[in-house]
């Protein structure tokens, strides 16, 4: 099939590349000309494991091309995917300007029938708005489909190639046929392609993210109880996760969820409810707990130093909001950095891939270490923010030598408590007892 993908971020480029991989002809459009030039030279513009190989292969085979010219891409395609940003407005609602401006531009250049597919995360009713916008500028027939994306950064290619399910919101039988064919190569079992109306598809995406965020906030609340009551949240996780009705995933307590999706989508769902004079009590509690969780983590560190961080050197392991990405959107590291600096501490950070993106965003407000151990030189405490594999089994002897104090605050529960006790560290993690150094 001939496909255009508008927006080449984590979703758009993965979508375009993975659709090319199954034989489709894909042209990717981005407004950022520098990014387009990079992709035309077969350079992936961000870090996403497993993308580069299939990206290069499909470019070499002529099935994956790039342009900044929307009209030529629309002319060359029958299906047009929108994978555009929907960042939060100040009031928490989703900013639809990228999607609606593009819909307007598509309307203006429509010359024949197209299926316009929204892959961005958008509030209920956006498909209708896109339809109205295109129709305002075009007399040609078209369909608007809601096809929300569920991939996770860091495993995006696998998630796209082997999805748990694909949701397609459409009322058109013709579209159902086209999508059944388009997505057949990605289906392990036929029933994973779920057709529904557009509004339900739009809400399914928010419900999924809000539910996952709820699991996390729930466990974070339990972690607070664990700390107060002398229980171990990892035991609770195992204890409840083995119940199939609960499931093992997304039960990891930590420093609260971050990333480009959960914070904004949970907020947007709450705003949607407010706009219709409804109330989503659980969702609002999830947001509150998430904020409290990261603040609580900061206060534990501050309290350790008697409430005075002035002149303290903090080593930070991890900047990305999660491992295997360079994405910093709503990363807990940025929250902590702001707090540390505001309190007069200095920060030396190390992240295996997100140092360039951090430097672009916050410049030299912190120092960037060339490896994880150099970040520890003369530090009063190590704070672990992202659970990169390289942090899981570090050399504790080197750490002990480099740190001024053998003090670790671990927001990801990476280490065994007994081993930390043997090693003589002060070790403060989430929802577990604190190990006091000898
Ligand atoms: N990142 C994820 O893991 C993920 C997963 C599922 C859904 N989503 C949703 O998908 C959407 C896209 O997210 P993302 O993370 O890929 O965004 P992103 O910020 O990584 O990428 C967006 C891209 O769109 C481009 N763009 C902006 N305006 C444009 C225009 N007018 N024409 C062409 N290109 C334009 C930008 O230059 C950028 O390359 C959002 O709604 C997001 O909520 C994201
Ligand atoms: O048990 C857990 C699982 C995750 N997290 C945190 O939750 C956030 C989000 O993690 P994850 O879901 O792995 O990353 P994303 O790439 O943001 O993916 C989410 O957001 C995407 C955008 O909507 C969706 O497509 C995905 O299905 C959804 O998992 C991160 O800060 C994680 O540290 C926890 O704290 N505990």
From TrEMBL:
EC code(s) of this entry: 1.1.1.22
First and last residue of the signal peptide: none
Span of domain UDP-glucose/GDP-mannose dehydrogenase C-terminal: 315-417
Keywords linked to the UniProt accession: NAD, Oxidoreductase
MF-aspect GO terms: NAD binding; UDP-glucose 6-dehydrogenase activity
Xref: Pfam families: UDPG_MGDP_dh, UDPG_MGDP_dh_C, UDPG_MGDP_dh_N
Active site residues of this protein: 261 (nucleophile)
Catalyzed reaction equations: UDP-alpha-D-glucose + 2 NAD(+) + H2O = UDP-alpha-D-glucuronate + 2 NADH + 3 H(+)
Binding, substrate: 150-153, 205, 250-254, 258, 322
Pathway the protein takes part in: Nucleotide-sugar biosynthesis; UDP-alpha-D-glucuronate biosynthesis; UDP-alpha-D-glucuronate from UDP-alpha-D-glucose: step 1/1
UniProt binding sites for NAD(+): 30, 35, 86, 121, 153, 264, 329
UniProt-listed Gene3D superfamilies: Cytochrome c1, transmembrane anchor, C-terminal, NAD(P)-binding Rossmann-like Domain
Transmembrane regions listed in the UniProt entry: none
GO biological-process terms attached to the record: polysaccharide biosynthetic process; UDP-glucuronate biosynthetic process
Superkingdom classification of source: Bacteria
NCBIfam families named among the record's database cross-references: NDP-sugDHase
Function: Catalyzes the conversion of UDP-glucose into UDP-glucuronate, one of the precursors of teichuronic acid.
Family membership noted in the UniProt record: Belongs to the UDP-glucose/GDP-mannose dehydrogenase family.
Name of this chain's protein: UDP-glucose 6-dehydrogenase
Originating species: Solitalea koreensis
């Amino acid at each position: 099939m001939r496909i255009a993908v508008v927006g080449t971020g984590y979703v758009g480029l993965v979508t375009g590349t993975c659709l090319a991989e199954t034989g489709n002809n894909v042209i990717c459009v981005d407004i950022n000309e520098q990014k387009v030039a990079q992709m035309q030279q077969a350079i992936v513009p961000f870090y996403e494991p497993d993308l580069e190989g299939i990206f290069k292969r499909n470019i070499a085979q002529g099935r994956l091309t790039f342009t900044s010219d929307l009209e030529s891409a629309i002319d060359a395609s029958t299906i047009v995917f929108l994978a555009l940003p929907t960042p939060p407005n100040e009031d928490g609602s989703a900013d639809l300007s990228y999607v609606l401006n593009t819909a307007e531009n598509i309307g203006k250049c429509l010359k024949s029938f197209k299926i316009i597919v929204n892959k961005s995360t958008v509030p209920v009713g956006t498909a209708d708005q896109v339809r109205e916008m295109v129709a305002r500028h075009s007399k040609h027939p078209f369909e608007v489909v809601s096809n929300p994306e569920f991939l996770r950064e860091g495993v995006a290619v696998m998630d796209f190639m082997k999805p748990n399910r694909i949701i397609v919101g459409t009322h058109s039988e013709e579209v159902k046929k086209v999508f059944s064919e388009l997505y057949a190569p990605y289906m392990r079992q036929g029933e994973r392609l779920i057709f529904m109306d557009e509004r339900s598809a739009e809400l399914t995406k928010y419900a999924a993210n809000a539910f996952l965020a709820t699991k996390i906030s729930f466990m974070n609340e339990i972690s607070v109880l664990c700390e107060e009551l002398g229980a171990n949240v990892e035991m609770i996780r195992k204890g409840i996760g083995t119940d199939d009705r609960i499931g093992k995933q997304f039960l990891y307590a930590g420093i609260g969820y971050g990333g480009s999706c959960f914070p904004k989508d949970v907020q947007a769902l709450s705003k949607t409810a407010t706009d219709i004079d409804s109330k989503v009590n659980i969702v609002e509690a999830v947001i509150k707990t998430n904020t409290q969780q990261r603040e609580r983590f900061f206060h534990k560190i501050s309290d350790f130093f008697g409430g005075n961080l002035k002149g303290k050197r903090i080593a930070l392991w991890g900047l990305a909001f999660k491992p295997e990405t360079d994405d910093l959107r709503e990363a807990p590291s940025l929250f902590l950095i702001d707090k540390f600096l505001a309190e007069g501490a200095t920060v030396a950070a190390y992240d295996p891939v997100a140092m360039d993106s951090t430097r672009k965003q916050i410049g030299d407000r912190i120092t960037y270490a060339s490896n994880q151990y150099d970040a520890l030189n003369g530090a009063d405490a190590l704070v672990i923010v992202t659970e990169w594999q390289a942090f899981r089994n570090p050399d504790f002897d080197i750490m002990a030598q480099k740190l001024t104090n053998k003090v670790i605050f671990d927001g990801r529960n990476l280490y065994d408590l007994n081993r930390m006790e043997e090693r003589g560290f002060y070790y403060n993690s989430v929802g577990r007892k604190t190990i006091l150094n000898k």
